[in-house]
Structure formats: structure tokens, C-alpha cells
Design goal:
The protein has about 290 residues and is mostly helical. The chain contains nine helices and four strands, in the order ββααααββααααα. It folds into two domains: about 120 residues, Four Helix Bundle (Hemerythrin (Met), subunit A) (Up-down Bundle); about 140 residues. The strands form two sheets. It has a two-stranded antiparallel ribbon.
């Protein structure tokens, strides 16, 4: 694939902290997370400690506002102490990211929370929210890509047509070529060849049911892209190829269903992450 020196992605970033300082959508440079962060995620860590810290801070931050609304001042104070402690603890976990943190802002916010004055709390939340927002703007997408999204490149698939084991990328190219073989030959009036291409495509496409099940363990999820609608569309394509006089309009309508409901929707969900991971892997290989 084409190498990309810099990844620029539009990111409308949603903060864990529900504060009024949400960053506006903008172009950000997607940087690979620092090596020390890997120590806070499996397999190097038994637990995903980094995201657990994020949830801990988010819970305390949101708890302050919820309990203020309920006039539960005792728990407001507990959340204030918990947030200040968790924030300072988190600031020490990734040395490369120490400049994203402002421990004083966290302590000032906690102190404001203990006054039980909502206006003072809102005002103090602004400075703290900026620290969180800046880090999320610049790192959240990369962290999710590296540590929360499965790497499909490590998946092996046995091709149901020639029974050879292939890596995921090569298998998907073969799948794509089978689809093209069906459609190009149909357009040329080579219906026997098109039928052969469709047969190979269907076998390879439906094999993804078992491949998707490696991550999507719930039946209704793994059938989202490889489901009844796509199967019916393939039936429709085959019916036209078997017809005495194939109808191009009906055939390519079903091609569109397969492409839109199956291939495209899966790519929209998975492909961007896979591309980013592949680029990072290429960079690592180049260093060796």
C-alpha cells in the first residue's frame, strides 16, 4: 500500500469529561501512542489501566455535578477528593504526556467543588477541561486505534476455493477480484465466466461469517455485514446469470446491494483503523 508520512484526520472529539470546553472539530496529526502507554494495556498489563484511570476521573468529575444537582454535598466532597487524587496519579503514568496535565488546575477544581458553589465549580472546570480536551484531541483516536481495535492483519483465513491459508489482506484482495470477475464478465456477456466468478466470490464472502466470529461472538453482530440481505442479493445475481436473457438492470441492482450493505458498511467500520495500524507496522518494520 502507499506509504503515508503523516496521517491527517478530521476528529470531532468527545471528551470523557462533560465540560463546556469541548474542542471544535479540526485537522489533527495522528501520532502513534508513546511506548510507555503499552505498559498500561494488555498484554503487558493484566488490566487496561489507562482507560480505567480515564473512567475513574470521568466518574468523579461527573459525580460532582450530579451530586451538586441533588444537593448531596457529602458525596460532592468525596468526588472532589477522588478526582484530585486520580488526576495526579494519572499524570505520572505516561512520562511523554506529562505536559498535558495541570495538577494545580485539578486541585483548584476540587477546592471549588468543596465550596458547593455551582458558579465557582463551573468556572474552575474550564481550566481542567482544557487539559483533558487537548490530550483527547491529539491522542484519543490513536489510542483507540492502537489498543482498543483488533488488528485484522494477524488473522489467517483458509480460502474455501483453493483451500490455501492466507493472511487477511491477501484474502480480501482475492475476494475483491472474484467480485470483479463476476461483474466484468457479466458486462461482456460472458455469463459462464461470470457465474464462476460469482461462485468463488460467494464462497469467500460467506466464509467471513466464521472469520468475523473471531471478534463478533454474538450471532446477530457477526451477521451484520454477512447477513440475509446480502445473501438474497447474491441469489438475485445468480438468477440473472442463469436466465435465458439476463437483465443488466436487475443484476447490477443486486451488485449494488452487496456493495453497499456488505462491503462498504464493513469498510466504513473497519478499514480506517486497519490502514492506520498497517502504516504503523510498516514504520516499525522499517526501523529493524
Amino acid at each position: 500500500m502507499k506509504r503515508i508520512n503523516r496521517l491527517i484526520v478530521p476528529a470531532a472529539v468527545v471528551l470523557f469529561f462533560a465540560v463546556p470546553t469541548l474542542a471544535a472539530a479540526k485537522d489533527v496529526v495522528l501520532k502513534e501512542p508513546p511506548p510507555s502507554l503499552a505498559k498500561l494495556y494488555p498484554p503487558e498489563s493484566a488490566e487496561p489501566k489507562w482507560i480505567q484511570q480515564m473512567h475513574k476521573m470521568s466518574g468523579h468529575f461527573g459525580g460532582i455535578f450530579i451530586d451538586m444537582g441533588e444537593k448531596d454535598f457529602e458525596n460532592v466532597d468525596k468526588h472532589a477528593d477522588g478526582l484530585a487524587e486520580a488526576y495526579e496519579e494519572t499524570s505520572k503514568l505516561v512520562p511523554e504526556w506529562k505536559d498535558y496535565f495541570d495538577v494545580k488546575a485539578a486541585k483548584d477544581f476540587a477546592a471549588a467543588a468543596r465550596t458547593h458553589d455551582m458558579e465557582a465549580i463551573k468556572k474552575a472546570s474550564g481550566a481542567l477541561g482544557k487539559t483533558c480536551g487537548k490530550c483527547h484531541d491529539e491522542n484519543q483516536v490513536a489510542v483507540w486505534t492502537r489498543f482498543h481495535w483488533p488488528a485484522v492483519g494477524k488473522i489467517k483465513i483458509t480460502d474455501p476455493v483453493d483451500e490455501k491459508e492466507l493472511d487477511f489482506g491477501k484474502y480480501m484482495k482475492l475476494l475483491s477480484n472474484s467480485f470483479k470477475a463476476a461483474n466484468v464478465n457479466f458486462g461482456e456477456g460472458q455469463y459462464d465466466r461470470a457465474l464462476k466468478g460469482l461462485d468463488g466470490f460467494r464462497k469467500r464472502y460467506m466464509e467471513l461469517k466464521s472469520t468475523c466470529a473471531k471478534c463478533h461472538t454474538m450471532p446477530e453482530v457477526k451477521l451484520f455485514f454477512v447477513g440475509e440481505g446480502v445473501e438474497k442479493a447474491m441469489d438475485g445475481m445468480k438468477a440473472e446469470l442463469m436466465a435465458e436473457k439476463p437483465n443488466p438492470g436487475k443484476y447490477f441492482k443486486n451488485v449494488g446491494i452487496v456493495g453497499q450493505q456488505g462491503c462498504k458498511m464493513c469498510h466504513l467500520t473497519h478499514r480506517s483503523y486497519a490502514i492506520i495500524q498497517e502504516i504503523w507496522e510498516e514504520k516499525e518494520e522499517a526501523k529493524k
